[in-house]
Write a structure and sequence with these properties.
heterotrimer; A alpha+beta (about 750); B alpha+beta (about 325); C alpha/beta (about 220); A: about 750 residues; 11-stranded mixed beta sheet; 6-stranded mixed beta sheet; about 55% helix; elongated; B: about 325 residues; alpha+beta; Helix Hairpins; Heat Shock Protein 90; 3 domains; 5-stranded mixed beta sheet; 7 strands; about 10% strand
């Protein structure tokens, strides 16, 4: 007879039915699993959706921004740019020298009246300034000037050079309610002939054809080529960083999200696994019953899996809905159905896989129950011990608890570890929270050393002859001032930072301005640590006129070249008497961390928020895990307890015994948590510091730990009390009868 | 047919799609590629369809073969069919095996009935033999010998009693054989059990009075029960007659009716000699008589008949007894079926 | 015609000094359609024997044949399917699934096999066993007798060839026992089944076609 293809027996229907029934009867377990899944899915959802919202929002903003600004333009260059086909849109603008008025920074600007598709502060009231005496300002500017905010008001402005001019307010600009920089928009006429803007070269804000579809590298290449063709120097090409970086998804952000996501899923695996494992262990008899009645291993496995899937779907859907709501509240501008649906689907699948992984083992356990085992299954069986050492041991409730824990050494240990993992994660998360106080975080940069920064007045540095150096000639921040500040009550210390203004010639840069800062002999080790290229010897540097370059990568970005080791730089500076020119050799370069930090600041805020969320999530998880373990432990041994009661154990004694068992588990858990959790927390802070989160300082989360201790110790007390009370709803006989 | 329609529909859709592509985009390469892709998909669809068809044909063929086994009554081969798999075929095989078993059981049952009818006939011939021989002898004596009148009268009297016995025997036999051969259909009706019981008791009052045995009946006036009144009365009469027969003078018989959840239980308790536990099962057998009761008149058919009647109504009889104290026969009649 | 046959079945638990001989060489054969009662004191190995017959347990030695098929030669899955299709169990402790209602419990073995329950037939059994009106109730709210009847209905629903009943009246009062037994006897006659029943009650055993007695793991009277 030829080999035939067999048609499988379709007996799946009952599985769905049994799963539904089973779900209806184990509500506590369902709640735990639903909570776990909803929590993990919700968190994943909020995280990814908020991130996607940020991206969408940024893209929306970028879509009305220029792609590149060509600065410092002469007429022929403007003509050349206007004739470039690749430029979709070009608008001219001027940015004048800023100056201070009444503590506010005022910036004279000019841009064209219509700058569509690039968004500028448009006129919301009145008209665009037409003649040389008209301006448009923010309403808040009028406030700053102490004038009433009405059209036609005359404003007198005193510029940096001391000259005063009077203007009529022709219109008000949008926005700028809360600002430190007040733009003053002048007319085209003023831009051409006005004192403040006529010598300022034009800049061109451009949008490049098809830029959105290019890679970051290709985009930069394009704008540089356009610039070169129009005769614009490289340093005068200022690409929109927001736009260019949006071209490649930030790898670090994606990695952080993926990493945290995997972390959340792993923790969910742990919790779902232990909840399911305990639930299956408590229902061994039921599975055995089904096996006796003719359910195959495969059917039992399918049953457990089906329950998992149903719970997973329910949990995931509710989690996602909550996540949508939260994500929408966080970034209403960034809502995008397409992204939301795709991300939700991915998260859903990830969680489904998680649940599958977590219930594989419990399902296997359920399937491995043999029919005959159904009646005799007891968790005591694994133990090899056959005889007790003494004929009679003290049989107080607490001793019974200890005996029960010792007799199931493996189960006790497993439970402790399962709880311990939650505890360790909790302590690590708590360590993160307390190690990063908002104060630490806001003190990034200069403020990590102090509360006040005293520096030169901006107007002064711009107006005094020789700029910074001119003031330094007669330094108001002298030792006397420092001493008097130190004398103020409450001032602990004054730290000083020094730098001076120089100009230098290197490669195609002639007379470029920058600043120079010294470092002390004591500090050289720190500097050496930050060195990215080259090496130095402090004494040789002094002897041979050697310098180090800070932020070589920034130079690369602006000029398209780097300072090469061994090259000579000509530096000019004012030494107090005359302009000096001197040559220095480059011996090293460094990329300081703080600079990196500012660059990645947004990423770090994201990381912080995520780890914070993760920590809260883990705290929730470990609590779920703890309560579930205790309840399951009690419920699955209900019959054993009834037996003890039937031979005369009182409620009080029973409760004492159950509480004793809970406390043994809790103590083991606390030891594991304390030892491993402290270590893990310290390690995490150390690692974060090493990648730049220098504002973090390890502190033991004592309040969180105390809280956890309290909860771990109190939960067994309450849970056992509640469970014992719940037992008494059924009569002792009923409970005993179910034993068989 | 349905498959062909689906295939045709798919093919038409494909052709439509190709022409749409060609007319709208005028791109021969695109059209060619999509034609190839569609042809590939159609080919897959065709393969899947023919596979399904083949599986169904195989399935049908196998069922056919296995049913042929049943048809040919080759039980040996049927027993070797695989029915322990998680497949549809195994499920069908399982049914075939069960059908074969039930057919075999029915064959066996009818053979057994035939046997029991045969043994009944031999039993009858055996039982009838003694009174017949006696009658023949008596008849001969009366016919051929010159006898005194007194003697003749006495012989005729003996003959009459033998005839009575034969009549009783034959009536019982006829009843039994008709019952056993399935000639009697019990007609279950919703009737008052009290009346049935009264009919049974009225038949036994004369012999009971002779032995001065009062019969106490505890039964509600209205006790509706689904049963065949005529034959149930017969069965109860047999049990009661048995009780009277084996009870000493001046004892009492108690009949009580209890309505249980599923059965109505009729207890008939006597104060007779009792039955050993080991014989509980045997007393209901045909022509069984206790060794110790040979002196008492009877042929051992009453209880057998009673059990047959009760069982035919989905009921059953049980006995409980204490030696020397008496026995209780419990007749269970189903309330609803 | 034999449906069930055991040959020298032995079941030992433990080893050495602790060895417990639950069954020590049992030879038994049951005819089709027979009602066999196994009697014996508790601990005599009755339940172990019944488990062996149902393929719930594997003998240490010897063989169990059902319909000419040897159970020990079957694979785990085959044995399960065998049980599901051929055997109906009535357990002493009912073994009803608490999360299912009465009707669902009854049709569970059928459903496990992927069969759509024959509603008319199942309702027939429910009527027969006086379970009408309890179909949607959960089993823990039923009386012992009702639970036992549900267990019997379950054993009958899949029309198995063999019913194995372990103390089917063990938890019932004598009145209910008699009722339940009458039912069992009637149903096997009606559906052409074979019933092997464990009991320690002689009164109940009188309804059987044959009684065997087990003492210390051996059959001591045929």
């Amino acid at each position: 007879m030829k080999r035939r293809e067999k048609i499988k027996n379709n007996n799946k229907r009952i599985i769905g039915h049994l799963a539904a029934r089973s779900l209806r009867t184990s509500k506590t377990r369902n709640i735990f699993i639903l909570l776990t899944i909803a929590l993990s899915v919700g968190l994943l959802g909020v995280m990814t959706l908020a991130y996607s919202g940020t991206v969408v929002e940024r893209n929306k903003e970028i879509s009305v921004m220029q792609h590149v600004i060509y600065e410092n333009l002469a007429d022929p260059q403007i003509k050349a740019l206007e004739n470039t086909k690749k430029i979709d849109f070009l608008t001219l603008a001027k940015l004048g020298q800023g100056f201070e008025i009444n503590g506010g920074m005022v910036r004279p600007v000019y841009y064209e009246e219509i700058t569509e598709p690039i968004q500028t502060n448009s006129i919301c009231e009145g008209t665009y300034p037409q003649n040389i005496h008209e301006i448009a300002v923010n309403r808040s500017f009028m406030n700053l000037m102490g004038l009433s905010a009405s059209i036609g008001e005359t404003v007198s402005l005193t510029f940096l050079d001391g000259e005063s001019e009077a203007f009529v307010v022709a219109g008000f600009l949008e926005g700028g309610e809360v600002t430190k920089v007040y733009p003053v928009l002048f007319s085209k006429e003023y831009a051409e002939a006005g004192s403040q803007l006529k010598d300022i070269p034009y800049q061109a804000l451009c949008r490049i054809q098809g830029a959105e579809k290019q890679s970051e590298q290709a985009f930069l290449e394009t704008i540089r080529t356009i610039g070169a063709d129009a005769g614009v120097e490289r340093k005068n090409i200022n690409e929109n960083n927001n736009f260019s970086s949006s071209l490649t998804m930030s790898a670090i952000d994606v990695l952080v999200i993926a990493g945290v996501g995997v972390g959340i899923l792993l923790v969910s695996v742990l919790v779902v696994y232990s909840v399911f494992y305990l639930s299956v262990a408590g229902r061994i008899q039921q599975y055995g019953q089904l096996r006796t009645l003719g359910a195959t291993k495969r059917q039992i496995k399918a049953l457990v899996n089906r329950e998992g899937i149903i719970l997973c779907i329910a949990g995931a859907v509710s989690g996602l809905l909550i996540a949508w709501l939260i994500a929408y509240c966080i970034k209403p501008q960034g809502w995008n159905w397409e992204h939301t649906l795709i991300l939700s689907l991915v998260i859903f699948l990830a969680d489904l896989i998680t649940v599958f992984v977590s219930i594989r083992k419990p399902a296997k356990l359920a399937a491995s129950v043999s029919a005959i085992e159904a009646s005799g299954f007891s968790q005591y069986r694994q133990n090899g011990e056959k005889e007790s050492k003494k004929i009679l041991r003290k049989l107080t409730p607490l001793n019974l608890a200890v005996m029960s824990a010792m007799r199931n050494r493996k189960k006790t240990l497993l439970t402790m570890i399962s709880l311990g993992v939650g505890g360790v994660l909790l302590l690590t998360g708590a360590a993160f929270i307390v190690s990063m106080t908002p104060e630490d975080y806001s003190r990034q940069g200069f403020y990590q050393w102090g509360e006040f920064v005293i520096n030169y007045d901006y107007n002064a540095t711009q107006t005094v002859e020789n700029g910074n150096v001119g003031i330094q000639m007669n330094n108001p921040l002298n030792d006397e001032l420092i001493a008097s500040i130190q004398g103020i009550n409450g001032v602990k210390d004054v730290l000083s930072f020094n730098k001076t203004q120089i100009s230098y010639d290197y490669k195609d840069e002639i007379n470029a301005t920058d600043s120079l800062a010294p470092f002390t002999r004591e500090n050289q080790e720190n500097v050496k640590d930050a060195l990215a290229e080259g090496s130095f010897d402090y004494d040789e540097m002094i002897a041979k006129d050697e310098i180090l370059i800070a932020n070589n990568t920034v130079a690369d970005e602006i000029f398209g070249w780097k300072f090469e080791m061994g090259d000579i730089v000509t530096i000019r500076y004012f030494n107090g008497v005359e302009e000096v020119e001197k040559e220095f050799t480059i011996v090293g370069s460094m990329d300081t961390l703080s600079e990196q930090l500012i660059l990645d600041k947004t990423s770090f805020t994201l990381l912080n928020k995520m780890i914070l969320g993760l920590s809260i999530f883990i705290i929730g998880f470990s609590l779920i895990n703890l309560i579930n373990t205790l309840i399951t432990n009690i419920v699955s041994r209900r019959q054993e307890f009834s037996m003890l009661q039937s031979i005369g154990m009182s409620n009080r004694q029973l409760m004492r015994m159950i509480q004793g068992e809970g406390l043994i588990l809790a103590l083991g858990n606390l030891v594991i948590t304390l030892i491993l959790g402290t270590g893990a927390g310290y390690l995490m802070v150390y690692l974060l510091r090493s990648v730049g989160a220098t504002y973090m300082h390890y502190r033991f989360p004592s309040w969180y730990f105390m809280g956890y201790v309290l909860v771990t110790l109190l939960v067994p007390v309450f849970v056992s009390g509640a469970s014992v009370r719940a037992f008494h709803k059924a009569s002792l006989v009923d409970r005993l009868r179910k034993m068989e | 047919m349905k498959n062909k329609m689906i295939f045709l529909a798919a093919a038409i859709c494909c052709i439509g799609y190709w022409s749409y592509l060609f007319l709208c985009f005028h791109n021969p390469v695109l059209t060619a590629v999509s034609v190839l892709v569609c042809l590939f998909l159609l080919w897959l669809l065709y393969l899947q369809m023919s596979r399904t068809e083949r599986i169904v044909a195989d399935f049908f063929e196998e069922i056919n073969q296995n049913l042929d086994l049943l048809f040919n009554k080759s039980y040996e081969s049927i027993n070797n069919l695989n029915f322990l798999e998680e497949t549809l075929m195994a499920r069908i095989n399982q049914k075939i095996v069960r059908i074969a078993e039930i057919l075999a059981a029915e064959r066996k049952k009818s053979a057994k009935e035939k046997m029991s009818l045969q043994s009944l006939i031999s039993d009858i011939s055996h039982q009838v033999k003694t009174p017949m021989t006696n009658l023949k002898m008596l008849h001969e004596t009366i016919q051929h010998r010159d006898l005194p009148d007194a003697k003749r009268t006495e012989l005729l009297k003996t003959m009459g009693s033998q005839l009575d016995k034969l009549d009783f025997l034959l009536t019982s036999m006829v009843k039994t054989s008709r019952l056993e051969a399935g000639l009697i259909q019990l007609k279950k009706e919703e009737k008052n059990l009290f009346n049935t019981l009264a009919a049974a008791v009225s038949g036994i009052t004369v012999p009971a009075d002779k032995k001065n045995i009062p019969i106490e009946v505890f039964c509600q006036d209205q006790c509706l029960l689904n049963h065949d009144p005529k034959w149930t009365a017969e069965a109860l009469f047999n049990v009661m007659e048995n009780a009277v027969k084996y009870s000493p003078q001046n004892s009492r018989i108690r009949v009580s009716v209890e309505k249980w959840e599923m059965y109505t239980k009729i207890n008939i308790s006597d104060q007779g000699r009792g039955i050993p536990e080991a014989h509980y099962g045997k007393i209901f057998q045909r022509f069984y008589r206790e060794e110790s009761s040979q002196a008492i008149e009877g042929i051992g058919i009453g209880l057998y008949l009673a059990r047959e009647i009760i069982q035919k109504q989905n009921g059953y009889i049980m006995v409980q007894s204490v030696i020397g104290k008496g026995s209780t026969f419990s007749v269970f009649l189903p309330n609803a079926f | 015609m034999k449906i069930l046959e055991t040959k020298n079945v032995k079941k030992y638990y433990g080893n050495g000094d602790n060895c417990v001989k639950a069954l020590d060489g049992v030879d038994l054969s049951v005819d089709k359609g027979e009602l066999l009662a196994i009697v014996g004191t508790s601990g005599s190995g009755k339940s172990t024997l019944l488990h062996m017959l149902g393929g719930l347990d594997i003998p240490t030695e010897g063989s169990v044949m059902i319909n000419g098929k040897e159970l020990s030669k079957m694979k785990e899955e085959q044995l399960t399917i065998f049980r599901r299709r051929q055997i109906g169990f009535v357990f002493q402790n009912y073994n009803l699934v608490p999360m299912l209602n009465v009707y669902e419990n009854i049709v569970l073995p059928l459903e496990l096999d992927g069969n759509k329950p024959d509603r008319k037939y199942v309702h027939g059994i429910i009527d027969l066993l006086h379970l009408k009106g309890t179909e949607t109730r959960f089993t823990n709210g039923l009386s012992g007798g009702q639970q036992q009847r549900v267990a019997i209905a379950r054993a009958l629903a899949s029309k198995p060839a063999i019913i194995l009943a372990d103390e089917p009246t063990g938890n019932l009062d004598s009145k209910t026992s008699q009722e339940v037994l009458g039912l069992l006897k009637m149903s096997i006659k009606k559906f052409g089944q074979t019933l092997v029943m464990i009991t320690h009650n002689n009164e109940i055993a009188q309804l059987a076609d044959r009684i065997i007695r087990i003492e210390d793991g051996r059959i001591c009277e045929g």
